[in-house]
Write a structure and sequence with these properties.
By secondary structure, the chain is an alpha/beta fold. It folds into two domains: about 1-210, no CATH class; about 220-255. The protein has helices at about 20-30, 30-45, 115-130, 170-175, 185-195, 225-255, and strands spanning about 1-5, 55-60, 70-75, 80-85, 90-95, 95-100, 105-110, 145, 150-155, 160-165, 215-220, 225. The strands form three sheets. A six-stranded mixed sheet has the order 1-2-3-4-8-10, sandwiched between helices. Strand 2 (about 55-60) and strand 3 (about 70-75) form a beta hairpin.
Length: about 260
């Protein structure tokens, strides 16, 4: 399988350094680093199962989303949008809502973001973007992949393929066995489009709530941050204050 890694942060190369991680968590939320590492697990696994007639493109920016589409797999048997989650636990999908079991209280609570809805919307965004470029292709089944073993999902007729960690071999085998729908020229054209995709300026973003209720913006005027970002700033400020105090004490004692 050929791999084209685009940076989720707009930097050169695909590697994520320490300050890139800080920037990613700051920009996309607390779960970003964990899900990015989970994404690499899927990339490596698919790379061992698919030949070079398939191309996997990571971090594809499209209009309507503040985050890039994690993975788009393009091959002779079609196109697949792949979202990845490192979440663990017991989940339920009912009437389009995504719930996670609170094991302490033994009741389901809404899980944000709604990963099923996000996956479906990202798939639609990729299809619409290609259509704008003159490529008319349908996606049979966008996929949400869970990297952690032991995830249990209660869902009937979900709008996306809910793929658990032990199902990736079967997923790849079924993909290869499907009918050929794209020729070499179409594959190259789709790949060329997706590796340079850019969101439209001023495009309305999808309303996808963050993973936590702490995500509401707080601030003054144009300077607004999410609650967890304020907490990080507070921790950094305290750390800097302690550093200054310790440094001052050392200077005084050595004077």
């Amino acid at each position: 399988m050929k791999l084209i890694e685009r940076s989720a942060l707009g930097t050169q190369g695909s590697s994520i350094l320490f300050f890139d991680r800080i920037k990613g968590i700051w920009t996309y939320g607390l779960s970003w680093d964990r899900d990015t590492q989970a994404q690499q697990v899927l990339i490596q696994h698919l790379g061992s199962l698919l030949d070079n007639s398939y191309t996997l493109i990571s971090n594809v920016p499209v209009s309507g989303f503040s985050i890039p589409v994690p993975l788009v797999l393009v091959g002779k048997t079609g196109l697949r949008t792949l979202c990845v989650s490192a979440d663990t636990g017991i989940f339920s999908l009912k009437d389009g809502q995504w719930y996670k079991l609170d094991e302490q209280k033994e009741q389901y609570r809404p899980s944000r973001p709604n990963m099923v809805r996000r996956t479906a919307l990202m798939s639609r965004a990729i299809i619409e973007y290609l259509k704008e470029k003159g490529i008319y292709v349908d996606e049979a089944e966008p996929t949400l992949y869970f990297t952690q073993p032991g995830v249990h999902i209660d869902a009937s007729d979900p709008p996306v393929n809910l793929l658990q960690s032990d199902g990736i071999d079967r997923f790849a085998a079924n993909l290869v066995d499907e009918d050929v729908v794209l020729d070499a020229m179409e594959l190259q054209r789709i790949t060329d489009i997706l590796i340079i995709s850019k969101p439209k300026k001023g495009a309305k973003k999808q309303e996808l709530p963050s993973r936590s209720t702490l995500s509401s913006s707080v601030g003054f005027g144009d300077f607004r941050l999410k609650a967890w970002q304020w907490m990080i700033l507070f921790i950094l400020a305290v750390f800097m204050l302690i550093t200054v105090i310790v440094t001052a004490v050392i200077i005084v004692n050595t004077a």
